[in-house]
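Marked as duplicate of an earlier ticket. Keeping the data here for the record.
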Amino acid sequence: MKPPSDDTIIHLHGVDIPDPFRPLEKLDSPETLAWIDYQQQRTNADIIDRKAVAAHVEEMKQIFDYPKQFLPLRRGNRKFFYANEGLQRHNVLMLQEGNDAPKPLIDPNSWPVEEARTLDVYAPSPDGKYVAYFTSHSGSDWKDLHLLDVDTGHLIDGPFPTCRLLRFPAWKTDSSGFIFPRPMADPADIKAGGNPDNKLFEHRVGTSPAQDTLYYEPPAWAHRSDKMHVYCGAMISLRTGAEFVFLSWGASAENAVYWRNPQGQCVELLAPDRGSLYPMADTDGYFYGQTTVDAPRGRLVRIDPAKPESENWHTIIAERPDAVLQDFALVGDHFVTVWRQDIAEHVEAFSKTGEPLGTVYAPELSSLSLQLEHPTDAYVQINEASYRLPYIFHRYDAQTQHLSFLDKAKIERDLTSDDIVIEQVEATSKDGTMVPMAIIYDRTKVKFDGTALTKMSGYGGFGIKNEIFFNTETMRRIEQGGIFVDTFVRGGGDRGRAWHLAGTKKNKQKSYDDFTACAEYLIKHRYTSAERLEIAGASNCGLMVLTCAIQRPDLFGAAFPDMPVADLIRFTTATAGPHWVNEYGDPENPDEFQHLCKIAPLHNIQKGQRYPAMVITAGRDDVRVVPWHAYKFVAAMQMLSPETPCYLNVLDNAGHFGAVGLDKRLEVAAIKEGFSRHILGPIPPEEYKIWKAAQKTGAGAKSPCATSASCNNAPQA
């Protein structure tokens, strides 16, 4: 079936760019819906073995079936935390009264499955009497705000206006109300191209949202252009009641910060375009914040509200040349900090004046985060996530300077065996930059003969660090003799602000050079071979996966981009796309347009070139990276390279973060797993060698496109 197409040509900066699949941008048109249905039927028929998928899901459920608990927040005499018995579709928000046994407070598993509704962030009031929380439908970026009376179990005061994206409600210290964001236009207007900027309102408990009062509206200068939307959020200190307002633009890692003084006036702490300042802590009349101003790797500063200008800030903990300040907490009279050095993280303590008190905790390669059970506590909780184990919790007492173990995941199968190796190595990128990567495998099963099935991923964008975490699919792969590789390429926040900026706009190609350099390293050192190497990632990493597969088809056997950005010429025309110009560049800027033309996956598919096999996943309800990016790419690939196995898997009731609910997430993973094994062969090296030998004699499994009428007769323009 041919996709809907026309003769549209983009005329920009003297360049004509054919855009034949522009009609696919009409997501609800009968022609688009019919083509999507055809593509899904093709995917179902060619690559999905339902019996094999069901068996894989059942195996993964057995691995995944362990109790999960998250660190608590304490408000009043109550504790709030997420938990999961093991195989529940969604995590449950639990309530613990004093020393009583915890009980469910909000259980999304009781909501109708067909609603595809999820529980997102929550914020309990300081006295523990109320919980403000957000829900979303089908994984949408549009969130519904609710207010729960904990004593009665009833929702009160609503319905509230729908919010876009997430900003935690900021409670007043007396629990009388909270601050939350409202968009300036309704969802329908924003979807049609309206202004999605927001402003802050104050809600008083016990009143109608119609009576909410304006708390903060960004000034006129903050609304910079239709490509730099402004978002604002509030934070209120539970220590002193100090109130702060944060402004951010697009998807920038920078912000502006204001202190709202007792007279209700906003005093500027950080002007825009200088860096970032966040979060804020306060005590003894001073504010403390983590900033990248004059410190790309971060420093901790003290701010006197009487002299708030940045030139008057006092550095408490200085920037370091070899580590990035990732997080901090004011704990009693001490600061507890998280640092990332290379790609490993550790925790250190300091006095309030910045005197080092030593390393608190330095585990093997892990991501660490701090959480105060209550902001006035003299201890802090430490959450450790690693490739080996889902989570370990610790508690650090600042008064005694003692670290104690709290809990860890009780999972029957993990990667804590001494035979599991986690190598930290560096690949040399095209310009000589050393790019860190982590390689995880079982030393008893990997022979370094190029046969190990290897999956490589990363992120590389928006100044966001690549989080280290445990994954049951990865664990299963390693158990069977495969390899997982995590890359930390430029564009991410792993080595500070300079590392981020080195992979943005005209430098975006460097992110892809870094990623391909990691692949070359793996092949050169015989961890794997090109025909056994798959790359995967979502969103910005989905873009990286597509771009690298197009630029270097010789390096990869299969590619699995989820919710990818693909059209870098028209990305600014839809929903969240305008927010990304400070990351990718602006197509309306002649110089930036030139580099976008060179890296855009959609516009660089070469006719007749065979590319790595692909399964491209899209969420039908994704309002962040609209699914027409995936649709247009698949249509173009099937037209220009019919020899490339390229499939579209469209998830119903799914947004930018993919399938909703555990069962559906496992099913999607199983589909990719089956396709990968069909293309690249079994995971165990010995089974792969037998499979490969059978292929050479003509007795082995063939590519799903070898006999597929739907693939050999790919839609023509």
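See parent ticket for discussion. The chain has 13 helices and 40 strands.
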